[in-house]
Structures are given as structure tokens and as C-alpha cells.
Amino acid sequence: MLSSLWHFLVRTAVTAAALWVAIRFLSGITLTVPSTPLVGTGDYDRLLVFLGVAAIIVLLNSTVKPVLRALGLPLTILTLGLFALVINAFIFLVAEWISNALGLGLSIATFGDAFFGAIIMAVVSWILGPITGVLGGKAQR
After folding, report:
1. CA angle, residues 140, 85, 62, in degrees to nearest 5
2. Which of 15, 28, 102, 129 lies in disulfide reach of 113, CB 3.0 to 4.6 Å?
3. Counting Cβ atoms within 10 Å, is residue 53 exposed (0-12), middle (13-18) or buried (19+)?
4. For residue 101, what are the CA distances in angstroms to 6, 90, 105, 124?
5. How many CB atoms are located within 10 Å of the residue 136 CB?
6. pLDDT 10s digits, 48-61
């Protein structure tokens, strides 16, 4: 149980870093902090918003994405795997909708921004994968 929580926290931190990179590269993706402080004086609100949106993305990737992958398997096979990128973009757009409902302020201008943002996030997560494996307790022996 505790290792699952630790794994979730590590994945959330990596996803937050990947989200930060995607926001830096794409002008169509923005993250705004609420005007009222979330905690205390609001010094750490930007970090908390990044972590909150990242937690939403991690939860969607754990729950909704497997269902969408199973339903979209025929299209994924026909497109030689490219439809999986569309599923990632859709998950990113759903995360935008949920984060706005919670007041976290993720904004994605177009589907293209979601598409390329999801690609950037996947690449950054792949690069940070070895670190995630070590921190998550899955080191190669």
C-alpha cells in the first residue's frame, strides 16, 4: 500500500515536470494560478497547481486510458500505432476539463496543442523513466 502511494507520488512529480516542459515549448498550453491563495500566503501555489494537474493526468492514465486503448485497438492497429497519440491527446483534453472544474487553470487552445503537448510529455516521461524506476523502487538488479 505504501509503495503504491510512493509510486503514485513519483509518477505525479515526473508528470508535473513533463507538463512544465510542454508549457515551455507550446504557447497554446497555459497554466494559471487561482487569484486567491490555495495555501497560506500563496508562495507555493504554482507548484501545487502543477502537482494537482499532474495528479489528474496520472489518475486518468491509470483508469480511463486503458479502457480507451482497448476500445481503440482496431484503429491503433490500422494506423500502425498512431491512434495511440490521439488517445493521449484526448486524455490531455479531459485533464484540462477536470482541472478547470476544480479551479486549477490548465488551458489548451487547440487539439493540435493537446496532441503535441502529449507527445512532449511522453518524451520527457520516457527520458525520466530510469529515474522514476529507481525512485519508485523498481531498480534493475
Report:
1. 55
2. 28
3. buried
4. 26, 17, 9, 27
5. 18
6. 999 999 999 999 99
CB 17 within 8 A of CB 124: yes
Instruction: Express each pLDDT in 95-133 by its tens digit.
Output: 999 999 998 989 999 999 999 999 999 999 999 988 777
C-alpha cell read off for 89: 491527446
Supply the pTM of this predicted model.
0.88
Residue pLDDT, tens place only, 56-81: 999 999 999 999 999 999 999 999 99
Burial of 127 (0-12, 13-18, 19+ CB in 10 A): middle
